[in-house]
# Entry
Amino acid sequence: MAASLLSCTNLSPANAATGAGINTEAADAGFVEDVGEVDPVVVTATRTALSADDTLAPVTVVTQKDIARSQARSTIDVLRGLPGVTLSNSGGPGRVTTMNIRGANTNQVLFLVDGIKVGSATTGRTQFQNLPVDQLERIEVVRGPRSSLYGSEAAGGVVQLFTRRGGGPLQAFGSLTAGRYQSAGIAGGIRGGGERGRFNLSGNFDQTAGFNACTGRGAPFFDGCGTDEPDADGYSNTGVSASAGYDFSRQLSVDVNFLRSESDIDFDGAFQNRARTRQQVAGGRVRLRPLDFWDITLTAGRSWDEERNFKDDTFVSRFDTRRDTLSLQNDFAIGSQHLLTLGADHQRDTVSATVDYAVDSRKNTGVFGQYQGWLGPATLKASLRYDDNEQFGSYTTGDVALGYALTSDLRVTAGFGTAFTAPTFNDLYFPGSPFFAGGNPDLRPEESRSVELGLAGRTGPVDWNLDLFETHIDDLITLVPPTFAAENIDRARIRGLEAVALGRLLGTDIVANLTLLDPRNEADGPDNGNLLAGRPEQTFRLDLDRRFDKIGIGATFFAAGRRFDDPANTVRLDGYSLLDLRASYAFSDALQIQARLENVFDEDYETVAFYNQPGRGLYVTLRYTPE
# Structure
């Protein structure tokens, strides 16, 4: 199979080998047999290290090689246009960016960094746009409800970012980038560790003078950003990551990891126009195998989301949130065809800010179990979780999926899952003002039910899959303009189709995916039947790459249909299409120069009303990456 931005199930016979329950880090360390690029090992879908095919989940895997080949300059570049994924960006690099998976709310997408939950407890968002792509080794995107394994926030899907890892001989790597808007970046690091050990230390600095982020209007309209500031809005990001681990024996290994990202962001706003943000993640895990069939993983971590806001360099506000997590997981391989997982999670979120929240901390404890079985041509997965939330009481969620291989090249899957999402601190308790509504302490948690039917196969050199899904959500939380009060929508329904194809044709690597979405408000009232805000009805992405000895060429085409910026569907954002071209020349196996021309036709478009997006731009990178 051609290497690509997307992994597709390859219908190979399932193998629940001893040790399959250990996570991806253990697989990299040699605890699990490497199945290679054709059928990559993933961990996010089931919390166990299995091939993508064995998980039964719709999952997209992006490797560091994929990122380098596509010349992506940010996580936004990587995630835009992946199957089922919708992004809405408020004015370019570093600005607020929301992500929907299969039409689910932004707060229904769980982000993990090396297995540690990240994100803001106040907004419910993860500032993934500020997590430096140069620090990443791999990204896994799982679509569909995963509350039965992860609890709240995973109703729409899970995105896991893995930072760079070491191992093997000592090596240095790095890159230099320059381009339009006075953009410049430098990244690099060292890694190594030998056969049993591994370490990595890397960093980056990126900056751009930017462009005018918003064309809003001030009083009395307060459209968009609520002001007219026609200036260039700059952005800078500094990141560092470190990881280390050691395999004391086949029965015991230890890993620690750390990621820090600091950003300085100029934007347009009536009440504030600059932000300084800092995100940090620190974690550690111990993996123990007391018996050949029993793996134990203990994971502990802390993530910080910190923000300082200013108006013309005058301090305005501070918001700091912290998330502490502890997880114990047991994986039991019962013979070669059954895998049982039992575990428990504990989480504590705390908030500290210059505004007063009626409640500034809460805890959640969850216990979960999962069974996976490979029974001839059939594969079965079932999971169940019980959460005890300090504020909202207990919730039980479940998931079941069945796959059946009709032939060696054709498989059908079906699944059903339930999920819940607790309101954020801002939804509940944010203080009001003369212009904006405050939090609504009467909000109810969101609850959902999803069904899915899939078909995956191989035709000649092309792997493909089709997934139909439908989700019903009770008490969906939305912000209603003009005061942006948080309210529950009694009922919402989302239907969709995802189609993916990839392979190598005539020497060219091809990856294509199409997502059709019908997200509807079904609550009684004036918005009944309207499209849910911020979700385009169609998205399409096509990636083409080909090599001619030392020369590589490629292109990415992305198109999105119309979307509405408000629940009343009165603010329509037109569809748009983007074409990016890229080329590279390899001076050696390790050193190459790359060039990427973004937005070739200089498309003028918005994903959030009144907020601008980058125009045509050329970016050149010198990259050193020894194998």
The CA atoms of residues 183 and 214 lie 19 Å apart. Residues 64-70 form the longest helix (7 residues). The chain has six helices and 33 strands. Helices lie at 24-28, 52-55, 64-70, 75-79, 147-150, 425-429.
